[in-house]
Structures are given as structure tokens and as C-alpha cells.
Amino acid sequence: MSSPNQSARRFTATTLGTARIGPHRECKRAVEGYWADRVTAAGLDTVAADLRRRSWEELTAAGLDSIPVNTFSYYDHMLDTAVMLDALPPRVAAIEDPLDRYFAAARGTADIVPLEMTKWFDTNYHYLVPEISSETTFTLHPDKVLAEVAQAHGTGIAARPVVIGPITFLALAKAVGDGPAPITRIDDLVPLYAELLDRLADAGVEWVQFDEPALVTDVVGGLPDLAGSVYARLSGVTRRPAILVATYFGDPGDSLAALARTAVEGIAVDFVEGAVETVVAIPELSEKLVVAGVVDGRNIWRTDLDRALATLGTLLGSAGDLAVSTSCSTLHVPYSLAEEDLLDPNLRGWLAFASEKFGEVATLSRALRLGREAETEAFDACRAALAMRGTDNRLRDNAVRDRLAAISDADVTRGDAAIRITEQNLRLGLPALPTTTIGSYPQTAAIRKARAALRSRAIDRDEYLRRMRTEIADVVALQEKIGLDVLVHGEPERNDMVQYFAEQLDGFFATDNGWVQSYGTRCVRPPILFGDVSRRAPMTVDWITYAQSLTDKPVKGMLTGPVTILAWSFVRDDQPVSESASQIALAIRDETVDLERTGVGIIQVDEPALRELLPLRDADKQAYLDWAVRAFRLATSGIADTTQVHTHLCYSEFGEVIGAIAALDADVTSIEAARSHMEVLDDLNAAGFANGVGPGVYDIHSPRVPDAGEIERLLSSALDAVDVQRLWVNPDCGLKTRDTEEVVASLTNMVAAARTVRASL
Ligand code: GLN
Ligand code: ZN
């Protein structure tokens, strides 16, 4: 097959993209400074340009010979692509300044609702969902990518611009108004991408990367055909750079053969997720550059260089040329191990953050070309570290494994739900339509100050505990005053609902500076799950019993569920995640038993991430849901039927997980519903769910205070769907991001509404 760019220089080592928050979160600070009017647009631009330059220099110094650019972003790369295609929603169009318009779409303003945010495939990164209506007219505005290319060329680097491909852009967008599915607009985008190719050729670009991770999913039907036709057209453009289509996060399956039959010059494939057999079976790849993602771009483990080199060896005969790469952008891992001063030296040897991964890519690329002998030192060091990992006794805890081996179905099953509820009602003596909250109360300035003071050793542990108790006492008093029926302790002592538990469990460790972008300027520091998990001591009992000692109303114990702890951590790669989930579940189960023993009558186990880990391919979904449900039930079935189990889920579009939510068999499930008008109740009923349910009656993500009348109306419509004995009254999520004044006003109205509806029964 002839292609205009068969002469494009084939590179040997690269990464599909890099993080952009800055090694010390410089970009986050600059952007937030811009929002607060402390940093000018020019100042922001300087910080950004400097971060990009440093990142490119680092990649070049590491030995990569093709450098991704345009992976920088002030907020999100999907939003950047929407800007490039002129697909921002009309409600921001009146904002003159492009940067302010961009941020308005991202975060909203006093009167503009932002774009919705959702998870980027099965990672913990969230992208902004472009809204496509029948009025959307796409036009090309490649200013950002061209500017980054110009900056890169100015510094003399081998820049390879990265742009989200048209299929993935549309597959991840949502239709608004009565517009059809965005993917039906693909023919509008192809000419614009063709125009982009022409502009990039003008700019002297040799290779362009189009990211098409949607091709490893089943989000829309007919993807292989679509991939074939779209890239046949784009690769048919006569004046263009060489095209690299990047697939990642899974096996592209039939889409790979379809791409291979087009005239694109290169295809990136994620070999951490398998896919070797898929590649070997496609003869057309023998003319392509295959960019082999053998270094895991989204987890933090050191690459087994011998194994990766063996994989590359297997691929050698199937590809025209092979380049070594990370499997995906390193957006998903921290910058560098160099920042981790306090790390256990053994553990350090097992890890590779982004910097270390770039080194691994370069090493593998040289070893592939020159033989392993050229990299003896690196291979020896790797073997030694992995051997150490293999024998570290923290990896295996036989007591945990023996306990798990002995678990039977009876251990994950509680008594009949209807009987349970009757017994619990007798014990708890709650009114109809009980009112409660999801767990956290505002993280006040005093809480943050105390935490900072503890970290800087300005106060000791005892003083910190005293201050947290004061917070708890205040929150309990506040809830009594408002008149809530089931109280919480408010979670002041928790920096984060996962980290708090990870810090107290064996098998996890925390990083000092392991920040990764969650969305926009928000960064998280996921704990690293490295060994078998067990609980050293009770983790929450003192706090809950203290709160309970202050009131006659029931106080809910508050725990994070095994799936969520797993989803928001870096997980070990040496055993199935389902096994890790069971181990965490056992630790949580121990905690529920201890809480019950001290007299706690209601225990909430949050699983906001249940849907997040759902596999990308339909065929894999049920197996996941089975183990996820089992882990939750293992965590919550160790207590008596008279103890009430609550759970909380953070979304209202249950879709594919609805059956699993019912199968959790929690006595009470609180869910988001305020924005979806209680439709979730019908969905739950349809799934056969008959236990208690607390559809959120107001949206805590907004500062707006709901009035009692609107909550009454929501409750009345909820009562059309569920029996009064099943209905709970609560906001739709935790209150930690709100301020106290809003919380008091909103909850007061919520309690008033519940009382009015109760009186009318
Ligand atoms: N209990 C947690 C809280 O209230 C639940 C948070 C969540 O749903 N993400 O903050
Ligand atoms: Zn929530």
C-alpha cells in the first residue's frame, strides 16, 4: 500500500503523553491564582510554557526520540478538543475572552452551568463531556496545537502533536436537545481533521498522534468499521504528516485490523492489557510502525524488563518497525520517585513513576536494537529489585489468606431482608421518613488548620484529637438542633475517605508527593496497595462511640467500602484485583463487627466507586460486578440482622450496575436523585430492589439552598414509587465541600419538608 509518508522517520522510543499539573503542582497553583485574580493571563502562560519546556527536555534527556506535545492542558484535553472543533456549548459563547470562556465551560460561573464531568474510561481522571446538539456547527480552530508545536520547534525538539481523534471525541460526547447520538456527526468532523493535517504539514510536523482509546470499548456499535473508514479517509489526505493512531486501556480487537488496512503509518497498542495475539494475527502490520506500550502508563510498578523485552521480541516479526512506549499517557501516575524521601528503600525499588518509566522505555528501546548486553546494568538492577519484591514477607499474610479460603456463601449472606427490616425498626424506633445525612459535614478552616499544624508538628497528636472531638461535638449538637433522626459524626478526622483507611491498613503505603490530576486543578494522592491487607486495630470505633456518647439519637458508623478503596488506590499487579478486594473486605468486616460490639446500630459502607471499575468491554462486565458485589457483602455480612447496613452511591444513572446495586442487599441505599427527579426509584424497583432507599432530595454540588416546598414535592413523587416504610430523606452526597450556613439552611428545610409529609400520611 503506498502512502505519502512512508519516508517519515520512524522513531524508536516515546510516551503517549505526560502529566501537566507540574512536578510540584505549579500549573494547579497558577490556574487557581488566575481564577482568584492573583495571576494574570500572561503570568499563567509563562508558567505553562515553562512546564512544557521542562517536560520536553526531560523526555529528550531520558532518550526518547519522538516527543508528545499538545498533551498540556489548563484543565482538560477533551475540553481543549471541543475548543479546537468550536463545540463549546452556546451558553458560554457570550464570554468574550477565550480563556475565561474556556474556564466557564469547565467550572461554570454564577449563572452558567458547567459541562458535566465524567470518568475517562476506567481511570480516576475525569474529563468534561462535550455537548453536541443539532445546532452544533463544527469548525476548526487549531490555535492551541499549532502554538505548542511552534514552541516545541523553537526549542528544537522532535515534536509529535497529540490530538483526540474524531471517533473518541464523538463517542465520549453527549447529545443535548433532541439531537441524535454525537457519533452520527462523524462525517462533519473528518474534513476538519483533514484540514488539521494540512495545517500541521504546513507547520513542518512529521508525525501526528490521534488518540482513539474508544476503540478498546463497546461504547458505540460498529467501531471497527468506523475506524477503518475514518482513517482510510484521513490517511488518504495527500499533504499530511505521518499518522499514529493511539489505542490504549485495552485490546482494540477487530479495530486494529481495520486500522492496519488503512494507509496510516503507525498504530500504538497497549500491551500491558494483552493484545499481543491480536497484533501477531494481522499481516498488514508488517508495513506499519507499531508503537508498543509495554511500560504501564497508569500503574506505578517497575517494569519487568526481561518480560517486556520478550514481548517486544514476539512482536518483532509482525511489525514493520517497533517503537517502545508507555502504554498510555503518564497523566495517571505521579511525576517522580525522586520526591519520595521517606519511602521504604525496598518498596522504592519496586516502583516506577513517570520519570522512571521514561528511563525504562529508553532502556528497552536500546536493548531491542543493540541487544540486552547494551543495558546489562539496568536489567541486573531490575532483576534484583523484582527478586526482592518476590520474597518480601509483607506480600503474603497467611492468616489473611487462610481466612479468605474458609469463606463460604453463608459468610456473604444476611438473613431475609424483610425480617431484618422489621427487627431493625423495632430496635431503632425511627419515625416514618427518617432524616439523615451522608456522612461528612463542612471541612471547616479549623479542621484544615489543625491538620496542617499536626503535619508541621506545631501541635501533638493529643491536641489534634482534642480538636477533632470538638468538631464532632459541634456537628452532633448542630444535627440535634436541626432535628435530624439519624446522626453522623461528620468525618472531620478524614483527610480523604480512602486515604484515611489506607493509612491504617497493613498492605498499603502513602506517598509524600505522589499527586495525580483527578480533574481540572484537583489532584489526589492515591495510596499504593502493595501487599496482603489486614487491619492493625479498630479504625473508626473511638470516633463513633464518642459521637454516640453525646446523643440519644442513633449515630451511624461510617466506613468506605472495599471496591471504592480499591478503585482510588494504585493496586498490586501480582494478583487479581478481585483477591485484593476480598482482603480489604475482610478488614472492613472486622471494623463493622467492632462497631456493632460497642452498640452501634447503623453502619454505612460507602461505595461511590462501584460503577467506576466497570470493565470497558461488555463481555467482562458481569464477572466484575459479581466480585464487586461479593466483596461488599463480605464486608457487611459479619453483623447481626438487627444492625442496619446503609450504603451510599454517588450517581443516578445506574444503567449497567442497577442489578448489582440491588444485589448489594444493603438495608438502606442512599443515591443521587435530586437532578434526575427520582427516576432512579423506578429503575431500582424494576431491578427488584425492595429494601430502604434514600434518593437525594437536593443537590449538594450547588450552593443553592432548596426550599421546603420543593423537597416536599420530591418526597411526594418518591412516595408514588416506593412504600412509605422504605423511604429515607437525605441530601444526595456528603456535605464536606459546602459551608456551614448553607448546610444549616438546607437541612432545616429538608427536616421541615419530611415533617410536613409525615404529618400528611
Ligand atoms: N461518607 C462520605 C461523605 O459524606 C461519602 C462521600 C462520597 O459519596 N463520595 O463525604
Ligand atoms: Zn456521594
What would you note in describing this structure?
The chain is an alpha/beta fold. 42% of the residues lie in helices and 12% in strands. The protein contains 27 helices and 21 strands. An eight-stranded parallel sheet has the order 1-12-11-10-9-8-6-2. Strand 10, helix 10 (276-280) and strand 11 form a beta-alpha-beta unit. The longest helix has 22 residues, at 41-62. The termini are far apart. The model has no long low-confidence stretch (mean pLDDT 95). The structure holds glutamine and zinc ion.
What is the terminal-to-terminal distance? 75 Å
The largest sheet, given as strand count, sense and whether it forms a barrel, is: 8 strands, parallel
- Based on Cα principal axes, name the global outline: globular
Query: How many distinct helices?
Result: 27
Q: Looking at the chains present, what oligomeric state does this protein adopt? A: single chain
Helix content, binned percent: 40-55%
Instruction: Provide the structure class.
Output: alpha/beta
Bound ligands:
glutamine, zinc ion
Mean pLDDT over the full residue set:
95
Number of strands: 21
Measured on Cα atoms, how large is the radius of gyration? 27 Å
Strand order of the largest sheet: 1-12-11-10-9-8-6-2
The amount of beta strand, in percent, is 5-15%
Spans of at least 5 consecutive residues with low confidence: none
Domain Cobalamin-independent methionine synthase MetE N-terminal: 13-316
Cofactor: Zn(2+)
Keywords: Amino-acid biosynthesis, Metal-binding, Methionine biosynthesis, Methyltransferase, Repeat, Transferase, Zinc
Active site: 701
